[in-house]
Design goal:
single chain; 58% helix; 13 strands; alpha+beta; elongated; four-stranded antiparallel sheet
Length: 401
Amino acid sequence: MQKNFSVAVILAIIVALGALTYFAYQPILKNLNLGLDLRGGLHVVLEAQEKEGQKISADTINKAVGILRNRVDKLGVSEPLIYPQGDRRVVVELAGIDDPEEAVNIIKNTAELEFWDETGKVLVTGKHLTEAQARASGEGQGFEVAIDFDKEGAKLFADATTANIDKPLMIVIDGKVISAPTVSGPITDGSARITGNFTAKEAENLAVLLRSGALPVSFKILEKRTVGPTLGSDSLSKSVKAGIAGLIAILIFMLGYYRLPGFLADISIVLYSILVLGTMTLFGAVLTLPGIAAFVLSIGMAVDANIIIYERIKEELRWGKTLKAAIDAGFNRAFWTIFDANLTTLIAAFVLLYFGSGPIKGFAVTLSIGIIVSMLVVLTFTRYLLVLSADLTKNHKLYGV
């Protein structure tokens, strides 16, 4: 009776896992975020330009990184990589960019907004802005950007418009006059608009720049490289094939050497793979080429945990213990070995995650998720399958003894 129940449960688990794999495969692939090296996109290296009387410091570069990140976030790019490089460089990597030139223009522009009087005196600056939104022009000619000032900015703008009635008030961005409307009366509500017969896209890009704030320093493009989707797809295809080949080799080895426990480990590896990729999709993690390597490595670590347990079970069986007692002892005595090995690797992955950037960070993220999931699967799911298998047969040869 117990044997029939165990057979039914194992078969049900296999069927359920097969169904889960079948239905989860396409959604995971469709929603998995691919990195620059797989999906293609834009790689830009910016170098800060030092002006007379302006010293570039680490704080300046860090502020610039924060502003650039705000700009890129507003472009809707998933998981951008923006990080300082050296004393005065910033690297920007954007995966899946449709219009690289537009992205570069938004990234590199300083976006320093100023309002000048007709003599060129600066009356108000963009540091007092609280909001900037693109909208259709009230005159029916193109689009404009509506802006709002904070309390201090509203007072300065009111003073500026009051002092320049019937005179032009020039709207200047990065030293370039965008428009110079004539002031017809004081504007005291802290709102203004920037006109210039913009297209909808130009107005939206300008609004993005103004909302994210002006860069504390100007940048020049040191390197601009576009990674084509063909290269990314080719790399992905080769990496997936290599990963599948490695996975099949592991499955065959486990089945051939450890027999019944090896077969159960293979089932666990399938569940493990779905959980790792599903977790990455759920949390929006980015899969890179090094990330695929980390995924295969973490599968190897999961198998290693199984091997440690199975070898311990074989020792317990040789000492004359019953199958269930050997399984319990195998897991209990192997636990701290597995825990210590995974913990040290996890610490190394966290160090890479904290100090690394780009592909190194992608490697660390995938490895961290893989280690945590492997521990959970091995110590719960695999153990449950082994306990069920103890009711199927008492033949120790099926357990490698």
